[in-house]
Automatic annotation (TrEMBL):
Record Pfam families: EAL, GGDEF
Matching NCBIfam families: GGDEF
Annotated TM spans: 12-34
Record-annotated GGDEF domain positions: 326-457
Identification of the protein by name: EAL domain-containing protein
Residue intervals of the EAL domain: 466-720
Keywords linked to the UniProt accession: Membrane, Transmembrane, Transmembrane helix
Gene3D superfamilies given in the database record: 3.30.70.270, EAL domain, PAS domain
Top-level taxonomic group: Bacteria
Lineage of producing organism: Bacteria, Pseudomonadati, Thermodesulfobacteriota, Desulfuromonadia, Geobacterales
SMART domains: EAL (SM00052), GGDEF (SM00267)
């Protein structure tokens, strides 16, 4: 180190000296030479020009030029550059004839030029310029170069010494860091020295170990100097065998018998006959890896395969079925009745049922079959078959296994299942296709009386049609293809139109006129009913306001609200927005709800209904008698109207049971002071019977079919003309609403009026 340091010092001193001299002298010298050459050239040029100019004056005035001092000075003062110069014209005797000069600092650089007249020299022109600026800049450059040279010399002189010191310091720090890392490593580090052993083999003798190797891996200080075959009972002996003929690093995984511990050993030669072995206890890592594998490929609740592993197994089974010419069945399970149990008894009870279902299915399938849980209450069984009949037997056997009751929380519950079956190769050639088709078949098995169902192409076609219809519904909303029709509701005593029910229709460019029963169920299941219901509500209110502004009589506008819209949307806010946008009096708005949506969450339902009543909106129960009819909600909910379902009206005059139901509904409604409306009235006999039983309003084809807006306005105008009511007398106040609803119109008869022509 010292020898190399002196050599570096001498070399850098010489190089620094030369470089500093060059930096000091060369720039100043170069500048002075270039500036001096430039000044000399300028002087020669200016002198020759002025000599010629003066010569021209001499030629023009051969006898008098010596006395033209002013003109000579003017000629001498002419310059093509801005450089300060001194110009003096001497005669041959050396006397000054004319002079033009600037103030200049010495020393001066001068040049003399002869002036000729007819080939004879008659005078001399001397041109001078100052060298002082050039010398000053040269001196400045010399100083700057000297400073740079000194700095360069200093840096080049000191850098090698600092480099030597830094290298020595870095070496020392590296050694300290190595020792610190060596001592603090969590992994065990054992150093071996290779020595010649018996039989010509190289043996490895332990040279050093770090504290982790002692405390974690059981090395002892007394092991130093022992052969690797003797340390730890020869546990690490395979390292010596692995290093033979392998100059690079080798990695091994060793298991310590009895203790159940797993080690990884990385051995690498270090040179000079030394070998380092890095030891790591990976027992916990191995266990964690196994747990992660279970999480990645197995369901954590039931221990069955998950979707990822199922697809892998299906690929394997498909390969076997293809090679051996077998069929493969994919049975897709979905539990029936599981969601109510999960909702009412809690998720813990649901988990217990899923675990029991998994246990029963596991006991029912063959060892070569694959059983998996996809999530929720969905399970899949994959089995190879000889014939498709085997799939039916498997499905029936699995259903029998699932049939017995389940004991959860001290209660007995029943859980069934629906199974969809797809067969390879008839229904698909990939796991994804088979699963999808089995899922489609499973939904078809949900129909009453069906427990399992085989996939068919018609099912997929129906699913595609359903998907297409859903897309068309969304597009219909954007394209404004929906419109409203209105079915009048007449007063049973007077025959006057008391209200109209807004009915949504769809005019599709592809399908033509589409009735609600073809798209409303899909709209409710997909959530399209929410924006559609909002559009119906706001459009109905806007139309009603337009009719009133045009002079129409006040009448109620009845709007159907689906259960999905009632439970999931902010209905009160929508009603307020509709009233604000249209300006309609909410006393003219009636919302019709079904019994089913009222009983889902009684407390929340009551809260929403009372908020609607606070807005002065009428609330009616549609299709009363077909759902969960209960006097309790009629008592506790703010209901204004009951609409008897058309199913009871159809045969009310023929069947005593139907008459008894209708009479009971009307009697209950009257006892509770509720308004009763009968829908589906199609004959005079039905109308007369309902009127005599006290039904307040009637709706049906006997009176009016659903009408377009234009036709409805014509009917209302004809009715107003028939009753002799002037358009200007039609009021929009609350009194008008009560007159229409109650039928208090003078001159109306007590019998059932004939239907309009």
């Amino acid at each position: 180190m010292i020898k190399y340091s002196k050599s570096i010092r001498r070399s850098t001193t010489l190089a620094a000296g030369i470089l500093s001299i060059v930096l000091t002298v060369v720039p100043a010298a170069i500048y002075f030479v270039m500036a001096f050459s430039h000044m000399t050239g300028v002087l020669e040029t200016e002198g020759e020009i002025n000599a010629r100019v003066v010569g021209a004056l001499v030629v023009a005035n051969p006898k008098m030029w010596e006395f033209e001092e002013l003109r000579l000075k003017e000629l001498l003062a002419r310059r093509s550059t801005e450089t300060a110069e001194r110009r003096v014209l001497y005669d041959l005797k050396g006397q000054v004839i004319a002079e033009s000069t600037n103030r200049m600092l010495p020393p001066l650089l001068s040049k003399s030029f002869p002036v000729y007249d007819a080939g004879h020299q008659v005078a001399n022109l001397e041109v001078s310029c100052s060298l002082a600026p050039t010398l000053m800049v040269t001196a400045l450059l010399f100083l700057v170069g000297g400073t740079a040279g000194w700095f360069t010399f200093f840096r080049l002189r000191t850098v090698p010494l600092r480099a030597i010191e830094d290298a020595y310091r870095g070496l020392k720090q590296s050694e300290e860091k190595y020792r610190s890392v060596y001592e603090s490593l969590n992994e065990g580090l054992a150093l071996y020295r290779t020595v010649a052993g018996s039989g010509g083999y190289l043996d490895m003798v332990l040279a050093d170990v770090n504290p982790a190797a002692v405390s974690v891996f059981g090395f002892g200080r007394d092991d130093i100097g022992k052969s690797i075959l003797q340390v730890q009972g020869g546990l690490f002996a395979p390292v010596r065998e692995a290093l033979r003929g392998a100059p690079a690093e080798v990695s091994l995984e060793l298991t310590q018998e009895g203790a159940g511990r797993v080690f990884t050993v990385n051995a690498f030669p270090m040179g000079d006959g030394m070998v380092a072995t890095l030891l790591e206890d990976v027992t916990e890592k191995k266990r964690s890896a196994e747990q992660l594998e279970n999480l990645a490929y197995y369901d954590s609740l039931t221990g069955l395969l998950n979707r990822r592993m199922l697809l892998d197994r299906m690929e394997h089974t498909l390969g076997i079925a293809q090679r051996e010419g077998l069929k493969m069945a994919t049975l897709f399970f979905d539990l029936n009745g599981f969601k109510p149990i999960n909702d009412t008894m809690g998720h813990e009870a649901g988990d217990q049922i899923l675990i029991e279902v998994g246990r029963r299915l596991k006991s029912a399938v063959r060892k070569k079959d694959t059983l998996a849980r996809l999530g929720g209450d969905e399970f899949v069984v994959v089995a190879t078959l000889d014939t498709e009949d085997n799939a039916s037997c498997i499905a029936q056997n699995l259903l029998r296994k699932l049939a017995p009751v389940y004991e959860v929380g001290g209660r007995e519950v029943f859980v069934g299942a629906s199974i969809g079956i797809s067969i390879y190769p008839d229904d698909g050639a990939t796991p994804e296709t088979l699963l999808k088709n089995a899922d489609i078949a499973m939904y078809n098995a949900k129909k009453p009386g069906i427990e399992f169902c085989f996939y068919s192409a018609q099912m997929n076609q129906k699913l595609q049609e359903r998907t297409k219809l859903e897309f068309e519904l969304w597009m219909a909303l954007e394209r404004e293809e929906f419109f409203l029709e209105y079915q009048p509701i007449v007063d049973a005593r007077t025959g006057r139109i008391a209200a109209v029910e807004a009915l949504v229709r769809w005019m599709s460019p592809e399908r033509g006129r589409v009735m609600p029963d073809a798209f409303i169920p899909l709209a409710e299941s997909t959530g399209i009913i929410l924006p559609l219901g909002e559009w119906v509500l706001k459009t109905a209110c806007t139309k009603l306001r337009q009719w009133l502004d045009a002079g129409g009589l006040p009448l109620r506008m009845s709007v159907n609200i689906s259960g999905c819209q009632f439970m999931r949307s902010e209905l009160c806010r929508l009603v307020e927005e509709a009233a604000e946008q249209s300006g309609v009096d909410l006393a003219l708005l009636e919302l019709e709800l079904t019994e089913t949506c009222l009983i889902k969450d009684v407390e929340e339902t009551a809260t929403k209904l009372w908020r609607l009543k606070g807005l002065n909106v009428s609330i009616g129960i549609d299709d009363f008698g077909t759902g969960y009819s209960s006097l309790q909600y009629l008592k506790n909910f703010p209901i204004d109207h009951l609409k008897i379902d058309r199913a009871f009206i159809r045969n009310v005059c023929e069947l005593p049971d139907e008459r008894a139901i209708v009479d009971a509904i009307i009697g209950i409604a009257k006892a509770m002071e509720l308004h009763v409306i009968a829908e589906g009235v199609e004959t005079l006999e039905q109308a007369e019977y309902l009127r005599h039983r006290g039904c307040d309003e009637l709706q049906g084809y006997y009176y009016h079919r659903p009408l377009s807006e234009e036709r409805l306005l014509e009917v209302l105008r004809e009715e107003r003309e028939r009753l002799g009511i002037a358009a200007g007398a039609a009021g929009g106040g609350e009194a008008g609403v009560k007159d229409v609803a109650g039928g208090n119109v003078e001159g109306s008869g007590g019998g059932v009026p004939a239907p309009p022509v």
